[in-house]
């Protein structure tokens, strides 16, 4: 353990973070952005530590590398770009997806590559990678607040690096053999009790500091996927791509019950599914044929809802960017699973869109929120309130531009 960071017996993760942050600031090791508290801290010598990655065979063999967007990892991102490797960077707080791929301009000079490796470059020179982008990551590089020589890692406490890794496992982007490296100052290498770690915590295989390369020989298993019972409804709302991954895993038969889901919600879902089946039995034959032929257009209604045509309070939601091979039955299944089943579906598969009728504006807005970020068939759907709401009794929906 670095002499400068003194930890009391039984220190918690929070205690360790505070001690490391305090020491970096008090010792003059902290670098921009400051203060380093509540961040993956940047430190003097971070570029030197990053450059040592080029001496590792696993870096030289890797063709696709995922590197966190933190400032102290900027040197690794630059090294990857200079070596013409595919560089993936997680989107900030996973708000709009999982990865962005950094794409420098053709023939980019060294100075341009330096810009591409910065936070500004990530914004300017990146393109999103969807769930079905077939990413195959050969090497993962993460930031840390503290790490032990055994490979136990502590982040800044928000859980994004752990969640990113679990999501990569769910996507098939990494395997249990994919190496994980962290870049830290020597003072961030401390003793961490193993009992502080949970099943969701990511461990590391290599630690690079300004003075050392440490191979941890860590035997503790890395996360084997998303632990849904530790995911809250709030987190699901903040990370739209989680919804798509949850839907895919539910379709595969996995238990995706969330941390704070109520038991009676499950009953409500079963009841809704039974109602949907009853509705499907009443649907005219043309509708079922349309669900098998994606290019056809038809309107399917819930005949049990007399308010649909008579009240004039219907609010319509536009769903765009529908992939050409998606069936209407797949969309309907997703709508049920996301608790966004409408009164009526106006399917326009040939135009890659659909319109969903809801009983009122509040219900429609709730559906838009629930479906935000949903990816089906490789496309992230565009979901919003229809720009031109139809009048009472009108069947046709105006085009959404």
Write up what this structure looks like.
With 401 residues, the chain is of the alpha+beta class. It contains 14 helices and 17 strands. The strands form four sheets. Strands 4-3-2-1-5-8-9-10 form an eight-stranded mixed beta sheet. It has a five-stranded antiparallel beta sheet with strand order 11-13-14-12-17, covered by helices on one side. It has a two-stranded antiparallel ribbon with strand order 6-7. α4 crosses α5 (110-116). The longest helix is centred in the last third of the chain and has 20 residues, at 263-282.
List keywords for this structure.
16% strand; 14 helices; 401 residues; alpha+beta; eight-stranded mixed sheet
Sketch the major β-sheet. 8 strands, mixed
Q: Quaternary arrangement of the chains shown?
A: single chain
Widest beta sheet: strand line-up? 4-3-2-1-5-8-9-10
**Strand content range:** 15-25%
Which structural class matches the secondary elements?
alpha+beta
Count all strands and give the number. Answer: 17
> What percentage of residues falls in helices of 4 or more residues?
25-40%
Which spans of ≥5 residues are poorly predicted at pLDDT below 50? Answer: 279-295, 301-310, 392-399
Helical run tally: 14
Question: Radius of gyration from the CA trace?
Answer: 25 Å
Please report the distance between the alpha carbons of the first and last residues. 60 Å
Mean pLDDT: 82
Shape: globular
């Amino acid at each position: 353990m670095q002499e400068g960071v003194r930890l009391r017996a039984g220190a918690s993760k929070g205690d360790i973070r505070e001690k490391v942050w305090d020491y970096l600031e008090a010792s003059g090791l902290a670098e921009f952005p400051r203060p380093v508290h509540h961040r993956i801290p940047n430190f003097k010598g971070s570029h030197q530590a990053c450059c040592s990655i080029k001496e590792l065979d696993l870096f030289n063999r890797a063709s696709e590398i995922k590197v966190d967007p933190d400032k102290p990892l900027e040197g690794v991102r630059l090294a990857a770009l200079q070596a013409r490797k595919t560089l993936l960077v997680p989107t900030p707080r996973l708000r709009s997806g999982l990865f962005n791929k950094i794409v420098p301009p053709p023939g980019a000079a060294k100075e341009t590559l330096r810009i591409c490796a910065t936070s500004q470059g990530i914004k300017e020179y990146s393109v999103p990678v969807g769930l079905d982008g077939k990413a195959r990551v050969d090497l993962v590089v993460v930031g840390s607040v503290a790490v032990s020589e055994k490979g136990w890692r502590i982040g800044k406490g928000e859980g994004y690096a752990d969640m990113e890794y679990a999501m990569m496992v769910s996507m098939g982007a990494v395997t249990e053999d994919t190496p994980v490296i962290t870049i830290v100052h020597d003072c961030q290498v401390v003793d961490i009790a193993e009992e502080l770690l949970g099943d969701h915590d990511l461990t590391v295989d290599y630690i690079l500091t300004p003075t050392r390369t440490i191979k941890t020989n860590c035997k503790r298993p890395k996360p084997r996927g998303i632990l849904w019972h530790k995911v809250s409804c709030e987190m699901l709302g903040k990370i739209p791509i989680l919804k798509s991954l949850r839907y895919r895993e539910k379709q595969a038969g996995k238990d995706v019950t969330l941390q704070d889901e109520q038991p009676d919600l499950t009953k409500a879902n079963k009841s809704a599914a039974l109602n949907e089946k009853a509705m499907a039995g009443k649907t005219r034959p043309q509708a079922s044929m349309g669900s098998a032929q994606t290019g056809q257009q038809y309107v399917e209604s819930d005949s049990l809802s007399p308010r649909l045509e008579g009240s004039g309070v219907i609010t319509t939601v536009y769903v765009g960017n529908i992939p050409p091979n998606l069936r209407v039955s797949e969309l309907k299944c997703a709508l049920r699973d996301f608790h966004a089943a409408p009164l009526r579906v106006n399917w326009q598969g040939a135009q890659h869109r659909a319109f969903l009728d809801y009983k009122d504006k509040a219900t429609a807005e709730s559906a838009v929120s629930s479906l935000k970020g949903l990816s089906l068939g490789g496309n992230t759907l565009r979901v919003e309130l229809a720009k031109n709401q139809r009048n009472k009794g009108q069947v046709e929906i105006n085009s959404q531009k």
